[in-house]
Every structure is written in C-alpha cells, then in structure tokens.
Amino acid sequence: MSYVGETLTNLLHQTAFFNLTWGNYVMILVAFVFLFLAIKKEFEPLLLVPIAFGMLLVNIYPDIIASPEETSNGIGGLLYYFYSLDEWSILPSLIFMGVGAMTDFGPLIANPISFLLGAAAQFGIFGAYFLAILMGFNDKAAAAVSIIGGADGPISIFLAGKLGQTGLLGPIAVAAYSYMALVPIIQPPIMKFFTTKKERSIKMANLRPVSKLEKILFPIIVTSVVCIILPTTAPLVGMLMLGNLFRESGVVRQLSETASNALMYIVVILLGTSVGATTSAEAFLNATTLKIVVLGLVAFMFGTAAGVLFGKLLCKITGGKINPLIGSAGVSAVPMAARVSQKVGAEEDPTNFLLMHAMGPNVAGVIGTAVAAGVFMAIFGI
C-alpha cells in the first residue's frame, strides 16, 4: 500500500497544479482571450492561434522552451529550438519571402506616390524611439521597441535580434503581432477623427495597367537600390523581393507556390508558437513589458495618424484626387490595413472601392519598415 500511495503522491505532484503561480493563470486567461479573438472574431487567426497556443503551453509547462543548460539531460525544450530560429533571423526572413510571393506590387508601381504615404506612416516608429528613451530604455532597446509602430512582426523580431535585445524579443513580438491582429479595431477611430465625411467619400481614378516587364524589374531594382544604400536590410528586403520575383517572373511557378503556401505556413507555425512561448508569467508580467505594450500602441497610433495626415496633404495638393484614408494603410500590416481603408471608405459610400489604391501604401509600408530597421542598424553600426 505504501508503494501505491507513494506512486500516487509522486504522480499528483507532477501535475501542473502544484507549480502554477497566479501569473501563470493570468497568462493562461490571456491565451484564452487571444484564442477567442482569433477563432470567434477571426482577428488574424493565422497569427493569433499559434501565438495563443504557445502562450498556453509555456504557462502550463515552462520547460517546453527551456535551454539545454536549464535541463537535467542537456536537451532543450521543443519550442527552444523553434525560438532559436527567430533569434537567428531565419524565420523572419523566410516569412518575408512568402509575403513577397503572395504580394502584387502592381498598385505601388502604378501609383508611385504610394511610396510617400508608406514613408509617412513610419513617423510613428521614430516618434516612439525618442519617447522610449525618455521612458528609460537605452538607445538599442528603444529602437527595438519603437519598430512595433510599423505593425510588422517579422521585422520586429529581426531588429530585436540584430540589436542584441533578445531579452525583450518576446514582449516586442507579441505586441507587434497583437497590433497587427487588432488593426480593424485600432485604426478606424483614428482615421475618422482626422478626416471629414467628404474626404472619406472621395473616389479615386482607376489605376493604370502595369506591364509584366515592370513587375519583373521592380523587385530587381528595389533590391539593388535599397541594399546598396542599406546593406543590412538585405535579409529582409532581399527575401521579400526574391519571393516577388518568383511570382512575377512566371518561370518558377513551383518555387512561387511553395514560398507562398507550404513554406509560408510551416514558418508561421514555428514562429507563432515560439513567439507565444516567450510569454511566460515571469518574463511577461513586469513593468518593462507594460512599457513596451504602451509604446508599441502609441507608435502604431502615431504611424496611422501620420499616414492619414499626409494623405490629407496630398489630397489638397492634387485637388482632391487622393482619398486620405489610404494613408492609414502605410503601416505594413498586409493586407489587413488596406482592407480597413476599404471598409471605412465603404461606410461612407458603398460604391467606393479603395482596396487596390490602399494596397500601394500598404506594400510600400513593408519596404518602409524594413528600411527603418536598416537605418537603426546603420546608426548602431550593426
């Protein structure tokens, strides 16, 4: 009987109930909320489902992301090896290849002024950088946090790793992906606040047709120009444009399909679950994380407002030919931000179709955020 009792006692003490803290329960509740938003509300489920599940796993079983040095057998937890691919910038770069293979740069090529709208939306990043320094972050940490304003998870992970801010990588990545998913909630009030009903109702002229040659030359030219000026952007911009060249060249259909489907979704699973697994209660429930979440939100809101305000300026300059709403799509949450521009415009006039016009600033924002990350790396000599 003593053997049976001892066995049952050991088994009971191996359950998570004896190891969970109040913080773990809080994070488990947050994971449930994320899963609800992803499944019920369909807020970027491809991102939130794996992130939320990784969050759930690590707060029930912390050893799932333990390093080899932290385990008795010298073998790290499953998600530790996934997370290592984040730190080495492998998964963010592969994500960009998939994004490139899925993206049509035609609207940007047809309306080059979209580059300016994409650039204007990066204001939030640099504004948040100085704010982060005022809040006590060192210069590299401030840069890693402020890039959240671009609403681009892979770039946020990439820059945090390059600047040696791996201790902040988890909160930064979760904040960036969360704001990407919450674009439909965060952006519309800002867009409506800075625009009038008349401006939101502006119909834009149809975009000109873009030739196949232009689409083939675009990724080659952008890679050459951007990477010559900022070589440190090569892993991101290079992979983005390589994926796009797969798509537009028309001669490597198998590579294009693999990059935009199988490879893309495999990487999303690995990256999402590993990012979620960085949100243990010990790492996440602290004042620094709260600052990061607040700064990220401020940066994202500033970026949205800057894009809309610059759109208003272009509207004035062009005599009312540009709807300012498309400026909000200058953040690089593709294609969610462009869909929000379409939705807000359609609320004023159901016959107004802004989606393709908004895709120009949206994809420009991806390039712009990558360039902003390259600027920070150049400043710090990375």
What does this structure look like?
It is built from 21 helices and no strands. The mean pLDDT is 89. It has helices spanning 2-13, 22-39, 45-60, 78-87, 90-102, 106-110, 114-120, 123-134, 139-146, 153-162, 166-181, 183-193, 197-200, 212-229, 234-249, 253-260, 262-276, 281-284, 287-317, 336-348, 355-379. With 382 residues, the chain is mostly helical.
Q: How much strand content do the residues show?
A: under 5%
The whole-number mean of residue pLDDT values reads: 89
- Main sheet: strands, sense, barrel: none
Question: How many helix segments?
Answer: 21
- Count the beta strands: 0
What structural class do you assign from the helix and strand content? mainly alpha
End-to-end gap: 65 Å
Radius of gyration: 22 Å
Poorly predicted runs are: none
| Dominant shape | globular
List keywords for this structure.
mainly alpha; 71% helix; 382 residues
Indicate the topology.
Layout: H1 2-13, H2 22-39, H3 45-60, H4 78-87, H5 90-102, H6 106-110, H7 114-120, H8 123-134, H9 139-146, H10 153-162, H11 166-181, H12 183-193, H13 197-200, H14 212-229, H15 234-249, H16 253-260, H17 262-276, H18 281-284, H19 287-317, H20 336-348, H21 355-379
Helix pairs in contact: 2-3, 3-11, 3-17, 4-17, 5-10, 5-15, 5-16, 5-17, 7-19, 7-21, 8-9, 8-19, 9-10, 10-11, 10-21, 11-19, 12-19, 12-20, 14-15, 15-16, 16-17, 20-21
Concise account of the structure shown:
The protein is 71% helix and 0% strand.
